[in-house]
Design goal:
By secondary structure, the protein is an alpha/beta fold. 37% of the residues lie in helices and 14% in strands. β3 (19-21) and β4 (29-31) form a beta hairpin. It is elongated. The two termini are 24 Å apart.
Length: 380
């Protein structure tokens, strides 16, 4: 082990004998008591020394080897230590790709705070490179989500959409002005390649299915240009994902209202069908109105401004990455909405519906996001 205090956490002395690692309540940890010699020893924990050399240098500070062992153990238990050599073979291979890892050092720093085990950050970045995500939609929201996922290290991001790029599809971080008039899917694939941190793993025949389906799909992000398909999603569209057990996340904008969620885990959380049935329970006219909205004329340009679409894309991509990294984010089985001009995000849980064919209501212990516990402070 080559112990290294996590560089992402700022340090400050709270007094003569207590150090606070981190600024924000979500990740801050107080650690103490520390004497002057031990405080000086902390400066040696930069990942360049193994434990034998650290113990040798500790002797020059009149610190016993046992003291070093206990200190390192306590720091590791508090999630304050990283190891630039840990994480396994995949992480080691990624570290050899300096061009890729340099692009993703901010991502690795963020992951090191969320996942405290030494080497866990680079290991998760390496795992992302083996994942495949399908984004359905290449408008202002969908294209930006695809770019964010690709830039965050997801190895393969497929984008499905039809038609030609319109001027109003263009957005910073999304499709560029030069894409106007091109096929949306072609422009989106170019955007994904341009956003990627290094070349993606090679595609095999087993990875390819009809319309980008097939095995190996980690997540589907439903981000259509028509926000109605997110606000009132058609359960029929999701049937293949429900039957195959493919997780899927909805995100979009309709009438100056941003919508993110739910993240559907088939058989464990409420789905599009559950959402529609709950709406019908609350409003008997809902199915009639949805049918009219879906079949009505769609000639109008969507009310989807740049800032709102960017906010929705960023939030959706963050939740998607959290899920891909092994967490159950807050959007699991829930939907968040925010309308202009106030942009106050409001959450609504989408409970499984007893009458829905997805069967989630009959599953004991339906999945829900775990609330992250507050970090305990370290006392001497």
């Amino acid at each position: 082990m080559h112990p290294m205090l996590k560089p992402a956490l700022r340090r400050a002395w709270r007094g003569r004998s207590t150090v606070q690692f981190g600024v924000t309540p979500a990740h801050a940890v107080t650690f103490g008591p520390l004497d002057i010699a031990t405080g000086s020893f902390l400066e040696l924990l930069d990942g360049t020394r193994g434990l034998p050399l650290l113990k040798e240098e500790a002797r020059s500070l009149d610190l016993a080897e046992r003291h070093v062992d206990v200190l390192v153990e306590r720091l590791a238990g508090a999630g304050l230590l990283d190891d630039p050599h840990a994480g396994g073979a995949e992480a080691a291979a990624l570290r050899r790709r300096a061009d890729v890892l340099d692009r993703q050092r901010p991502d690795a720093a963020s992951l090191s705070l969320v996942h405290p085990e030494p080497g866990s950050a680079v290991r998760r970045l390496a795992a992302r490179r083996a994942m495949r995500v399908q984004v359905r939609g290449a408008g202002r929201v969908g294209a930006a989500i695809a770019a964010l996922l690709s830039g965050s290290g997801v190895g393969r991001v497929d984008v499905l959409d039809g038609g030609l790029t319109e001027p109003w599809d263009v957005a910073p971080g999304g499709l560029p002005p030069s894409a106007v008039g091109e096929r949306r899917d072609v422009s989106a694939r170019r955007l994904v390649r341009r956003s990627a941190a290094g070349a993606a793993p090679r595609t095999t025949e087993a990875d390819v299915g009809p319309e980008g389906g097939g095995p190996g799909l980690s997540l589907v992000v439903v981000a259509p240009r028509d926000g109605l398909a997110v606000y009132a999603p058609d359960p029929g569209t999701a049937e293949p994902w429900i039957s195959s057990g493919t997780p899927h996340l909805y995100a979009g904008v309709i009438e100056a209202t941003g919508v993110v969620g739910p993240l559907v885990l088939p058989g464990g959380t409420g789905c599009a069908g559950c959402l529609g049935l709950h709406r019908a329970d609350q409003d008997a006219q809902w199915p009639r109105m949805v049918a009219q909205w879906r079949t009505g004329r769609r000639g109008a340009v969507p009310a989807c401004d740049l800032a709102l679409s960017a906010a929705v894309a960023g939030l959706a991509a963050s939740h998607a990455l959290s899920f891909l990294d092994g967490e159950l984010p807050a959007i699991t089985g829930s939907r968040w909405e925010a309308a202009l001009p106030l942009m106050e995000w409001r959450g609504e849980r989408i409970a499984p519906h007893q009458a829905c064919v997805c069967g989630a209501a009959r599953t004991t212990g339906a999945l829900s996001p775990a609330s992250g516990p507050a970090r305990d402070t370290m006392a001497g």
